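Quarterly update, task 2.4: flavin-adenine dinucleotide-bound model.
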Amino acid sequence: MKFLIIGQGLAGTLTGRRLELAGHTVHYIDAPEQTASSSVAAGIINPITGRRFVKSWRIDELIPEAKSCYLEFEKLLGLTFWHEQPLIRTLYNRGDLNDWQARSADAGYPEYMDDNPAPGRIPVLTVPVFAYAGVRHAARVDVAGLVAAFRERITSGDQLKTDRFDYSGVPRLLGAEPASGEGRRSAGATKGQKSSATYDHIICCEGWRARFNPYFSYLPHGGNKGEVLIVKTEAPVLDRMFKHRVFLVPLSDDTYWVGATSENKFPDDSPTPANRKFLEDRLAEVLTGTKYEIIDHRAAVRPTVRDRRMFIGQHPELPRLWIFNGLGTKGGSLAPLGSRWLAEAILNGSPIPAEVNIDRFSPKKEGL
Ligand SMILES: Cc1cc2nc3c(=O)[nH]c(=O)nc-3n(C[C@H](O)[C@H](O)[C@H](O)COP(=O)(O)OP(=O)(O)OC[C@H]3O[C@@H](n4cnc5c(N)ncnc54)[C@H](O)[C@@H]3O)c2cc1C
């Protein structure tokens, strides 16, 4: 079959690869002038999150799926994307320590929680803390590197069009031209008929900009802007990730990813001086044991969803039009399993788990 994927961030890349592996032809369209969330993410996979130290949703399934997915990309592209790295968290006071210890006794938690982690060079390079806690099975995926390397591959394979997709072309591309007009309602009149189609299926993976997709704008798209710094240090970088008032994530060549801010309301997706200052101040409080230089400051918008679950599914009236979105703050861990669910739904008719299926929102319920 022939597929078109709109948006080549992490969601589009992983979905496209799964379809290719199943023997199908995949074309992509991506607007390169827009900043993708995938190009700014640290790609941290963190099984224990928040101040209450809660296990991430379905993490026992997500980690093995992520590892095998990213290792397959490593083999395909000849680069390293998957880094298993300990994650060290700061416990700020006795209360945090008690909470951590209590949680680590809960069923299903000991595998992920280390009460007595080796902090490596953290105490030398960063400010003293009350105590450290370790998160086991943490990892970092080089999301930006993976998406960029895959882009080169599909560019040389002539599969990528670099342009903004014009949604009025959907009925024509699916061979489902409506009698008049565009949009979900008129497109629905044709109920997925398939005469002279350019593509058998179209999959929408536009990240937070899916709110501008007229077919799926009824979904409760969020959007959370994040800004980050990239810094280069004088001393060699830590060999583990460190969460204090900011996250310090070792990259390569003695550089760190430092982030991130979080804003649900934003006029645009550009970096701002105020958020740069916020990050600089926090970094200065934490990274006290080495000189460093800020070499980049970036911003992007995370594709968040009201109920914090992915959007996977089929347009209610155009069954060959699909969406994969809502990866929120955790695309690195969610996208491998989410892309499998989507590919299996399209290719084999497998059911999409109800928690992530867009059927949980109907255009009617959303007031349309
Ligand atoms: C500051 C920050 C830190 C983060 N840190 C982490 C982390 O540590 N761990 C983690 O797992 N996740 C993290 N994330 C989240 C992660 O980036 C996302 O979950 C994931 O990358 C989303 O991928 P996506 O493909 O859905 O969207 P995107 O990466 O945004 O890709 C969407 C693509 O679609 C294109 N597009 C949109 N509309 C159109 C159109 N009409 N025509 C053509 N192309 C279009 C865009 O140009 C873009 O290339 C972070 C995000 C941010 C912003």
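Highlight for this quarter: The chain is about 25% helix and 25% strand.
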